[in-house]
Amino acid sequence: MIQQTVFVGPAFLFFTIIVLVPFVLGMYYSFTDWNGVRNTAGWVGFDNFRAIFTSDRNFWLAFWFTARFSVASVVLVNLLGFVLAFLLTRPLKSRNVLRTVFFLPNVIGGLLLGFIWQFIFIKGFASLGEATGLGFFQLPWLGTESTAFWGILIVSVWQGAGYLMVIYIAALVNIPSELLEAAKIDGATLGQTLRSVILPLIMPAVTVCLFLAISWAFKMFDLNVSLTKGGPFRSTESVALNIYAEAFQNNRYGLGTAKALLFFLTVAIITSIQVYLTKKREVEA
Fold first, then answer.
1. By Cβ atoms counted within 10 A, which residue in 70, 108, 112, 119 is the most buried?
2. Which DSSP state fits 32?
3. Residue 100 lies in a domain
């Protein structure tokens, strides 16, 4: 008991101070009109939540953008991560170098990455468009609602695919070679092998990767700030950015934490359903 306290105690203490206490305080402040500055917070009950559902159009526009972005991001980042992993488990001489190259974007901080891609979209693509005449490079990538959506999505997928690639590689290399050889001997095509052998055996990795991708997409903030700041005309404002603006720019901390609580419950429900559904499809080799 003493040894457990010595080893677990410090970690639990810091977890309580850094995570649990702010979470409980946030739940409390969501029922108040605190502005984040004054010493007192007036209790308003469910007024903040009522205002969100009845009069906060910007929050629901941000929620709709976040939902669309999350669906597209989760599908594309997992698809690209799996394709890269599948290709880089083949007998290629340069596969270790390529694994490092594809993983590197995940090491770069989101804000820095966003500012780099902002320069690429505005300056780099414009120069390429002038040199090649291709319409793809001449699009106003961060200037309209539709192109800005895809611009953020491209950067997000490019950043996250390498991390998921590593998880998928770990799962693919642990598939027993006997099963793959048996499928080949039985005349299974590549598509049949993927669908009936490989995917069922890597479902634990799929569960983890889907969970990570969903949480990344819903919580997306740094790329949103650095690329578009929610523009043009708040058309690409994520829920995280909307909550930040409400709490720290509009000084309505109570309303901001109420939005954050609703957002937390939504993401918790979605990820719980996802984990439950994918766990049911896991098999053992």
1. 70
2. B
3. yes
